[in-house]
Amino acid sequence: MPPTPADDTAPKAPASRGSLRATEPPREPLGIAGGQLLGWTAVGIINLAVIVVRAFHTEVPLGIRWIQGLYDLGHHLGLGVVSYALISAWKVLGPRRRCWAWFGLTCAAELVSTLLLPEDLDGLALRLEALTTAAPWLALLVALAGSTVPLAIAFGQVLDRDRWRWLAIIIAVSAQVLNHLLLLGDYPGIHFLTAWCAAGLIGAAVSGLVRPSRRRGRSRTLAFLAVAVAAGAAYLLPPSQSVWRELFRNSGSVVTPFLARLYPAGTGAFSYLSSRSPWFLPRDHLAEVPPTGAYSPPKQPLVLLLFVDALRADLVEDEKHRAALPELHALADDALLFTQTRAPATSTITSFISIFTGKYYSSLYFTNPDGKGYFPYEDATPRLAQLLNAADVRTINMPALWGLGEYYGVGVGFDEELRPGRDYERANNVATAIIKRLEEGVDGSTLLYTHFVDPHAPYNLAGKSGTPYERYVREVRMVDLAIGRIRRYLATSGLDERTILIVSGDHGESFREHGVRYHANTAYEEVVRVPLIIQAPNIPPRRVGAPVSLMDLSPTILDLFDLPTPGYSMGESLAPYLAGGERELERPIVVDASKRIRAMVFPSGIKVIENINQHTVEIYDLSQDPGEKRNLIDELGVEGQDYVGAMRSFFDAHQLRRTGYVPPTRAF
Q1: Which of the four pLDDT bands, split at 50, 70 and 90, describes residue 94?
Q2: Domain 299-578 falls under CATH 3.40.720.10
Q3: Are the CB atoms for 425 and 418 separated by under 8 Å?
């Protein structure tokens, strides 16, 4: 008798393969929305790993690094949440055909590229403008950059196979790691698009992976909400200033530069540190400052004002460079060397216009009438050459860099503008042109000014072998040799008996001391400190450690010609040092960079740096921390706010006030 259904001991027929599948929870692909959420999460995890690894190679406390990493991860989670929500909404509300989805993605990518990239391409635009009409080429570049996002996602879908997904992940991880290593400290639009491509590539490549069925939808919803809350906290709760600044040091933290525009800038109180100083009050109404008369120059003095582009202070002060730069070191041995000199800005144009006018960048009027960049075309402040001309002092400008000529509003007022050759002319040719002009005769009181531009990135003029720093030093050597030629001519011609030779740098140069290269993008000491050498008859050689500024040069030169300094000038004459004495200098040491970065060094050694666009503030004690490794902003409390307030009150007192005018952010 066959067993009955109630008989548990009866043998059971094997279940069919179809019935087994019916008992398992159905599974479905992760989908493009889930893939993009996972892709942005992966980019955030890559960043977290890079940040933690870097923590072992820096002096930043590990706790700050972890908080920085968590904030960065939260920012990228937020991008993933937004991507998930938009894609999900499109699936419900948008057209069904795939071509429309690709069209919508392409439009979104092109819109983001159009909004973010133009500022990154300002420098390229100026170079193109010199050759052709830049606008169509820039539009093409922006369009091509925007197309990389849909192309990356399309490539990821091609690799959405079990055997090929790892290739997509390797490519994306490599791209995001390179995002931390290339174009440091700038180009936020390019960094963002690179991260988007990496996230899109990963997201598309894993979109075919299966995930639990919709029966677990409640768990997935709760997980999504938890991720959204964590991301929202990272966006809505501003971190401490120390963490915020570290986020900006990390070029792979692609959200931070744009999030800064949403956070309000601090105001700071008016500080007791500045309330007693007339230098923290408007000065346009002040009378001229008479010459000190401390130093008696030779009859009919010839002032040679020679600047070297990107000349760091350590190249002249550190003995290890003597063999490579013998002429500069020999000059320093025979002259007055100021070892605590700082430039007023961190790029060439802004540094020189500040030196020539006695006013800082935010006190001057920069315009961009022809689309070639912001220059002081229309600023009416008298330049040094104009003040000298009014007193019958002959002035000669030999601009190896044409941007320092009269056309751009910098070298205004010179009696002669003699271009020594092409733009960015080499130092040897500039020296030849200077010697030739001196041979023609320089009767009477004269100022001759030039700027050697050889030591400039990519540092390939003296060979491409070696590290960037080694190549940079070799380019400085090209100028070193040119200065040696000029000095030898002065000696053999007898002109040295009436020559006051001034050699300095317009700014320094950075070699990743703080994670970035070149100049203009920071206000740390490697970019701000420059050598200042003054050689003149009857001046005993010595080193002066008093903090001085290149803003003191114009008052000093005016003093040498027995002329007064305008009352608005933010510098003081160094002539008493030339006479072998000392002087209690009262004006503050200030940096006002056109990237909207400003700094102030206080007599106590405290240095405050503020990035207006990023809304970051840093405080360093240079007496204890000359390398600016330990940011004290979160440690000093009220005292720190006093210093910050003092600097802000200074800039508030001296900012140009003109209806509708805001000091622009220059691309270089």
Answers
A1: confident
A2: yes
A3: no
- Alpha carbon distance 457, 455 (integer Å): 7
The pTM of this model reads 0.82
What is the rounded distance in angstroms from the CA atom of residue 417 to the CA atom of residue 448?
10
- Residue 189 CA to residue 116 CA, distance in Å, equals 5
How far is residue 438 from each of residues 92, 317, 432, 663, measured CA to CA in Å?
79, 30, 10, 40
Alpha-carbon span 349 to 426, nearest angstrom: 19
Joined together, the tokens standing for residue 333 give 């041995």
Q: Any residues with CB less than 8 A from the CB of 29 and at least 6 apart, and which?
A: 207, 208, 209, 210, 211
Give the Cα separation of 303 and 534 in Å (integer).
Answer: 10
Q: What sections of 208-285 are H helices per DSSP?
A: 217-236, 241-249, 256-259
Query: The tokens 């940011």 sit on which residue?
Result: 631
Q: For residue 10, what pLDDT is reported?
A: 44
| Residue count of the chain | 668
d(CA 650, CA 528): 19
Burial 87-112 (b: 16+ CB within 10 A, else e): beebeeeeeeeeeebeebbeeebbeb
The amino acid present at 314, given as its one-letter code, is: D
**Contact between residue 349 and residue 408 where contact means Cβ atoms under 8 Å apart:** yes
Please tell me what DSSP assigns to residue 493: H
What secondary structure does DSSP assign to 22-70, as a single string? HHSPP-EE-HHHHHHHHHHHHHHHHHHHHHHHHHTTSSS-HHHHHHHHH
Neighbours of 491 (CB within 10 A): 12
Assigned token pair, 543: 């080193």
Kindly give, in sequence order, each residue whose CB lies less than 8 Å from that of residue 311, ignoring residues fewer than 6 positions away.
455, 476, 504, 505, 506, 508, 509, 530, 531
**Counting beta carbons within 10 angstroms of the beta carbon of residue 618, is it exposed (0 to 12), middle (13 to 18) or buried (19 or more)?**
buried
Strand runs (DSSP E) across 141-282, as ranges? Answer: 210-211
The answer to whether the CB of 435 falls within 8 A of the CB of 462 is no
With vertex at residue 417, the alpha carbon angle to CA 415 and CA 419, rounded to the nearest 5 degrees, is 165
pLDDT tens digits, one per residue of 333-354: 999 999 999 999 999 999 999 9
Contacts of 43 (CB under 8 A, 6+ apart): 76, 172, 176, 195, 198, 199, 202
Pairing mode, if any, of strands 616-621 and 336-342?
unpaired
In whole angstroms, give the CA distance from residue 110 to residue 97. 21
Strand 529-535 vs strand 499-505: parallel, antiparallel, or unpaired? antiparallel
Burial (CB count within 10 angstroms: exposed 0-12, middle 13-18, buried 19+), residue 308: buried
DSSP track, 321-386: GTTT-HHHHHHHHTSEEEEEEE-SSSSHHHHHHHHHHS--GGGS--B-TTSS--B-TT--PPPHHH
Q: What is the pLDDT of residue 242?
A: 84
What are the boundaries of each domain within the chain?
Answer: 24-259, 299-578
User: For residue 606, what are the CA distances in angstroms to 253, 621, 626, 631?
Assistant: 29, 5, 10, 11
Identify the residue whose tokens are 């055909």.
Answer: 97
pLDDT at 185 (0 to 100) = 73
The Cα–Cα gap between 259 and 598 comes to 20
In a 10 Å sphere around its CB, with 0-12 CB exposed, 13-18 middle and 19+ buried, how is residue 224 labelled?
A: middle
b/e per residue, 236-264, with b = 16+ CB within 10 A?
eebbebbbbbbbbbbbbbbbbbebbeeee
pLDDT of residue 1: 35
